[in-house]
Design goal:
The complex is a heterodimer of chains A (about 250) and B (about 180). With about 250 residues, chain A is mainly beta. Chain A contains no helices and 21 strands. Chain A starts with about 30 loop residues before the first strand and ends with a strand. The N terminus of chain A is likely disordered. In chain B, about 15% of the residues lie in helices and about 45% in strands. Chain B contains 3 helices and 14 strands. The two termini of chain B are about 35 Å apart. In chain B, about 30% of the residues are buried. At the A-B interface, strand 1, strand 2, strand 18, strand 19 and strand 20 of A face strand 4, strand 8, strand 9, strand 10 and strand 11 of B. Strand 1 of chain A pairs antiparallel with strand 4 of chain B, so a sheet runs across the interface.
Chain lengths: ~250, ~180
């Protein structure tokens, strides 16, 4: 029997936590997206993905974008995230890592795969030398089990999954300082300590409305829920305190 | 020899085309896919409305003291978070068929179906459209035929509007096949 189990990654994007991570430009301000985005801004360029292609717009003059280029990436593209000089493009089958050395014509550096999960349905966040991915196996996404995957990206040409933690229905995630926030629609909003970045440890679970994605932002955790938005104070990183629900 | 080669290429091209979709001369009744059309003029109706409840919560975005949340397919809720203890919705930016957004230097980029629209957000309580790139996100996968294969469907009539989706129903004009 053919081993059809594809160990790959689906819908993924990188979450960037601090504004400093957003590139070298200090005189421009770019917003922060959740980890499920199809638009990403890096430097003077807006990148967008549809299910197969990457489009590039020059936004040097922000009010007047110029459509510059289109590149075929692959099948089932779902998310994109710009992290420093790289683009991380998540598809139903693989995560493509592209170099922005030439921002108008990104080139593929490598693909990240998981040995643990056969298909992956969710986002990833990146720090400098580590990436965290939620790998969700539902009937829609296929695969064996759901995990939080810890990927060593010190060698960007060869990303390696080095640790996994069991999850139930994980969705988006993001980090702030030494805390990693993971949405799990079954378990709740989970807070992990990542002081040892390759060995996250669970410190708290909040069972509020179903959490789908998070943006840690300026000591607040903005949480996309099934009802709208929950905002938490994360001045104490490991102990989010709910400020408000916005419906 | 060269001619034969050319003929083969043309034939295979033609074959490739017929595999995409086929129009059938006679109408044939039964279950089939019917295009959902939208009026091009309705699609581009963009305006800033008073704050309202979120219907189908979508993606989130943070910029400066503001938080934005897409309401899937209808637009973007604007939330003023200046007072962190009491963030308030200040309005709803109505953008038909919007799902995506990104912001840089107080300019918001959002999709309006297949167009890229740029808003000036310098006054976030009064966003203004400043630019539009038409048809830059073509929905090729649904524009001419449904995504399913080996199905009958109603051929697209571009005079009826822009195809924004397909629905399966009993129809008398299953005049295309794919």
């Amino acid at each position: 029997m053919k081993k059809i189990l594809t160990y790959t990654l689906i819908a993924f994007s990188f979450f960037c936590c601090t504004k400093n991570d957003q590139g070298n430009n200090t005189y421009v301000t770019t917003g922060t997206s959740g980890s499920l985005a199809r638009f990403a801004i890096a430097g003077n360029y807006l990148y967008s993905v549809d299910d197969t292609r990457l489009r590039i717009f020059d936004i040097s003059n922000p009010s007047t974008p110029i459509y510059k280029n289109i590149i075929n990436i692959g099948w089932g593209i779902e998310t994109i995230f710009a992290f420093k000089d790289k683009l991380f493009i998540g598809s139903t089958s693989v995560v493509y890592i592209y170099s922005l050395a030439n921002p108008l014509n990104p080139t593929m550096i490598s693909t990240a795969t998981s040995q643990q999960v056969f298909r992956r349905c969710d986002p990833v966040v990146a720090k400098d030398s580590v990436a965290y991915a939620t790998l969700r196996s539902s009937s829609m996404c296929g695969g064996g089990r759901s995990v939080l995957s810890v990927i060593d990206i010190r060698f960007i040409n060869n990303p390696i999954e080095i640790y996994t933690l069991p999850m139930q229905e994980p969705m988006g995630l993001g980090y702030w300082g030494n805390s990693l926030y993971v949405c799990d629609t079954a378990k709740g909003l989970q807070v992990y300590d990542i002081t040892n970045q390759y060995l996250p440890t669970l410190v708290k679970t909040l069972k509020d409305e179903k959490c789908l994605d998070v943006i840690p932002y300026d000591d607040e955790l903005i949480c996309y829920t099934s009802n709208g938005i929950n905002i938490y104070d994360i001045t104490n990183r490991s102990n989010p305190v709910k400020i408000i629900t916005i419906k | 020899m060269r001619k034969i080669f050319l003929v083969i290429i043309i034939a295979s091209l033609a074959f490739a085309c017929t595999r995409r979709w086929n129009s059938i001369n006679k109408d044939n009744k039964g279950y089939g896919y019917v295009p959902i059309y939208a009026n091009k003029n309705d699609i581009v109706q963009i305006n800033f409305q008073t704050a309202r409840l979120t219907t189908n919560p979508g993606k989130i975005y943070a910029y400066g003291n503001y938080i934005f949340q897409n309401d899937m397919g209808t637009g973007i809720h604007v939330i003023d978070n200046t007072n962190k203890l009491n963030p308030v919705k200040t309005g709803f930016l109505n953008i038909p068929y919007n799902f995506e957004m990104a912001i840089r230097d107080s300019f918001l980029y959002a999709n309006n179906l297949v167009d890229l629209v740029v808003f000036d957000l310098h006054n976030p309580t009064n966003p203004q459209v400043v630019n539009r790139i038409n048809g830059v996100f073509p929905m090729q996968s649904i524009q001419n035929y449904p995504s399913e294969s080996d199905v009958y469907f109603e051929c697209v009539d571009s005079t009826k509007g822009v195809v924004i989706g397909w629905k399966k129903q009993i129809t008398v004009s299953r005049n295309c096949y794919r």
